[in-house]
Design brief:
globular, 4-stranded antiparallel β-sheet, 59% strand, mainly beta, 116 residues
Length: 116
């Protein structure tokens, strides 16, 4: 896309490990996967990389060279996932979550559910 920000992050998934690279910091960061943990979605763009596994959402900020993760209970069911520029977003049955390159953290909000 013309005029888009350069990609400052790299992401690799290897057996039992996720590797993130921050171009601004020139540093690799590693996150170990638990036995039986499966990668469901992955993406990298701009200053953000994110992974959704069978147990958690993991976000990486290339700007801050930090990883932040949140648990995703199995019953939440992933509905949507997107990584674009400085943000990663995901929707589950229960929550909307967003990861920001600027804060290096996930923010979440409960979604409206019928019958609640």
């Amino acid at each position: 896309m013309a005029g888009s920000a350069p990609t400052n992050v790299a992401l690799h998934v290897v057996p039992r490990e996720i590797l993130f690279f921050s171009a601004p910091a020139g540093v690799w960061t590693s996150v170990r996967l638990d036995a039986g943990e499966r990668v469901l979605q992955r993406g990298a763009d701009g200053n953000v990389a994110a992974i959704v596994t069978s147990q958690r959402a993991i976000g990486f900020s290339a700007v801050l060279n930090v990883v932040h993760e949140v648990r995703l209970p199995e019953e939440e069911n992933l509905e949507a996932f997107k990584v674009e520029g400085n943000a990663a977003t995901l929707l589950t049955r229960r929550r909307a979550l967003g990861f920001s390159a600027a804060t290096g953290k996930w923010a979440d909000v409960e979604r409206f559910q019928l019958g609640r």
